[in-house]
Amino acid sequence: MVVMVVAKIKNKKQIGVFIDGANFWNCQKKNGWRVDFYKLKKFFYSRGFVKDFYYFTPEMPHLETFLEGLSKLGYIVVKKPIKVFRARNKEGIYEVKHKGNLDIEMAITIFKNIKEYDEVVLVTGDSDFECILDELKLSDKNIVCLCNSTSLAHELKGKSDIVFTLDKLKKTLRYKKQPPRG
Hints:
This protein is an alpha/beta fold. The strands form two sheets. It has a six-stranded parallel β-sheet with strand order 3-2-1-6-7-8, sandwiched between helices. Strands 4-5 form a two-stranded antiparallel sheet. A hairpin with a 5-residue loop joins strand 4 and strand 5. The N terminus is likely disordered.
């Protein structure tokens, strides 16, 4: 496990970061560039002491190496099996669908640990989290959202204390694979 150490944390607030993995992946796909999760941790550590980094994702075999890497970086990975079902499409033909929504698990985790944080960061643009923001406001928590400017629901934008958009943080957070040496 990699432990982030920031020499001089000016702001000693306790932060919890909660990443909606599926939503965040779609944001990155839409942008055409990937986020460096080490840089993401460093970015939030610059805001205060990050007590927890959670990453919520459906279980998918092709993600295992990525999720192991996140765990090594100190992220708490929360997984749930994908639900496979059949549903009719617009033409009335049955198709196999996959669903791996972890919104409820994310909400429960936030509220189980609410007393430990001064600031809660939601990395999502999903309007389903509006009621969570309402409850966080009642608990007098600072609320930060990180998402694409085009994917952030207006409900979240209006109720967040701070909104960071990926398009404005591209230089700071972009994953740049190092070219081979020699």
